[in-house]
Specification:
The chain is built from eight helices and two strands. It is mainly α and 238 residues long. The chain has one domain: Fumarate Reductase Cytochrome B subunit (Up-down Bundle), CATH 1.20.950. Helix 1 runs antiparallel to helix 2, helix 2 crosses helix 8 (207-237) and helix 4 packs across helix 5 (104-126).
Length: 238
């Protein structure tokens, strides 16, 4: 638990989100519009690097979901779909239970967004628009597979935008209906709770482990890109 600094009478701060989860969250928030802008303005070198960065963050996030902080682990927030629906059914209740980390519905939103972002970044590796640029693995597959990846890459982006808008609307609804601030804790890492709270205290993951995992994710993506480019060069001269 972090040091308690009471800004409101009768409350204390509880650390619920580690800096690695917050870093991934806000970088993805920035990378989505940045990727769109680089594609629209034909800055495809930057577009590729944005995709590589996004893929690195996703690989790290998935690994951190198994060995990271308690609130980051999939097993701590992935409930059954029925539980998620039950949570939404009780949404209008003002006196909501204290939720540490993602709730049952929010956990599924995280899983859906991770899946869509993986589909977007992964398909980009194989995409080839035959005009401006191609992904580093485009020449490692046949043209029909590359064309399918290109189609997925173009269409999934707008699904991601739709889900992101839904996510923002949900945040506003929680703020207006349930009086819960979901953005603040993702910025500061801490949730303000009553002093009398005696519930679970999330265990934070190792910063050293997180740094190693992030470095390994970056190396893995870099190696994949280099391999793809080497395959493309070999096929071009073959």
């Amino acid at each position: 638990m972090d040091r308690e600094t009471n800004a409101l009478p009768g409350t204390r701060r509880l650390k619920v989100w580690d800096p690695w989860i917050r870093m991934v969250h806000w970088l993805i928030v920035l990378l989505i519009p940045f990727s769109w802008w680089t594609a629209e303005t034909h800055r495809f070198d930057l577009h590729l690097w944005s995709g590589y960065t996004l893929l690195t963050l996703l690989v790290f996030r998935i690994a951190w979901g198994f060995v990271g902080s308690h609130t980051a682990r999939f097993r701590s927030f992935l409930a059954s779909p029925l539980e998620g629906l039950r949570h939404l059914g009780h949404f209008r209740r003002r006196q909501a239970a204290i939720e540490i980390g993602h709730n049952a519905a929010g956990g599924w939103m995280v899983l859906v967004m991770l899946g869509l972002l993986l589909a977007q970044a992964g398909s980009g590796l194989f995409a080839d628009d035959e005009i401006f640029t191609r992904g580093p693995l485009a020449r490692a597959v046949d043209t029909s597979t590359s064309a399918l990846a290109t189609s997925i890459h173009l269409r999934v982006f707008w699904v991601i935008v739709g889900v992101a808008v839904l996510h923002i609307l949900a945040i506003l609804a929680y703020r207006l209906v349930r009086k819960q601030n979901l953005v603040g804790p993702m910025i500061t890492g801490a949730l303000r709770l009553p002093v009398a709270y005696r519930g679970p205290v999330p265990r934070m993951g190792s910063n050293w482990l997180a740094a190693v995992l992030l470095a390994l994710a970056a190396v893995a993506v870099w190696a994949l890109v280099q391999w793809g480019q080497a395959q493309g060069s070999a096929s071009a001269f073959g």
